[in-house]
Amino acid sequence: MIRTNWTREEITEIYNTPILDLIYKAATVHRQHHDSREVQVCTLLSVKTGGCPEDCAYCPQAARYHTEVKVHKLLEVEEVIGKAIEAKEAGSTRFCMGAAWREVRDNKDFDKVLGMVKGVNSLGMEVCCTLGMLTPEQAEKLKAAGLYAYNHNLDTSEEFYGDIITTRNYKDRLDTLHHVREAKISVCSGGIIGMGEGENDRIGMLLTLATLPEHPESVPVNALVPVEGTPLEDQEKVSVWEMVRMIATARIIMPKAMVRLSAGRVRMTLEEQALCFMAGANSIFAGDKLLTTPNPGMVQDKAMFQVLNLMPRKAFKEPLDAYPTKVASNSGN
Ligand code: SAM
Ligand code: DTB
Ligand code: SF4
């Protein structure tokens, strides 16, 4: 049963279940709603890097912190399509384009992003964007261009939000999620653990997500990647058990969602990642880079899939043939 009326007490109880029972429960729920052998492989591309006006304490792309990230203006459409083709050929079914923007502006850059969305959509991949805040009109335009999903993370609880970000508030985030939902774009929203938040904050974020009018179809769980120059550079690594608790709880309370084992895999062993899959994670980002930080490479992940007998999952969206906008061919038909 899908519930959107979870209480904090219920989620707290699930989150604090003895770990092996929690994994067992989550694995059971996972098997009721998903094929446990399938893991979706997604690819990220930073289409506009660095120079962001926001002050997100975890983020190497915030202009105000001195990190090694080099600012790069918006990429050209052709370059992005080229990367999407490479990703598709490597087995990826979802392509997510990220921009270091506070919000989308109605300008030439947005038109270019719409072109990217059209192009990637025409490849038959699930196309996702994460561009910061959106107005309802911008969400409509993205939808019309063929956007499949929009990523907009709550990151943490409402209570802890101000400790991490001061340049926008929780309501701004929820408003954008609402606009995305209204435009009938699939919602991707999750958060980060390891930023100094308490268990109550992790539970609070899950409570907010699981009590939205509809659950997000996709919930990324990131472990902080501490980057030199950001305020969170010295944060200690979270234990795998915390990652497992987060994933398992998300799986139990939002059974149909794709729960994505996102940032932080470079510091996890194969066995630790296996526990996350056991706890209900069913997606990873592949390729040796996330947006700006390292990620295990394709070769390593292929080997992991083999050892764990996992299969890359097909895209959810209809196959290419269902779309009129096929990739331009030279044959003229
Ligand atoms: N600027 C847009 C925004 O903030 O919505 C989109 C890009 S932003 C980089 C996308 C997400 O990446 C953030 O919401 C955050 O959850 C995640 N992220 C950024 N830096 C991270 C880090 N160092 N470790 C883990 N996750 C991170
Ligand atoms: C998400 O939750 N994690 C991805 C994706 N959504 C956009 C981004 C992780 C970024 C990690 C830091 C970096 O590489 O810059
Ligand atoms: Fe900018 Fe997004 Fe990074 Fe925040 S997380 S600084 S909004 S790019």
Topology:
Elements: H1 8-15, H2 19-33, E1 38-48, H3 77-89, E2 94-99, H4 108-121, E3 126-130, H5 136-145, E4 149-151, H6 158-164, H7 170-182, E5 186-188, E6 191-193, H8 199-210, E7 218-223, H9 240-253, E8 258-261, H10 270-278, E9 283-286, H11 298-307, E10 311-312
Parallel strand pairs: 1-2, 1-9, 1-10, 2-3, 3-4, 4-5, 6-7, 7-8, 8-9
Helix pairs in contact: 1-8, 2-9, 3-4, 5-7, 8-9
This protein binds S-adenosylmethionine (SAM), 6-(5-methyl-2-OXO-imidazolidin-4-yl)-hexanoic acid and iron/sulfur cluster (SF4).
6-(5-methyl-2-OXO-imidazolidin-4-yl)-hexanoic acid (DTB) is lined by residues 44, 60, 96, 98, 130, 151, 153, 190, 220, 222, 225, 262-263, 290-293.
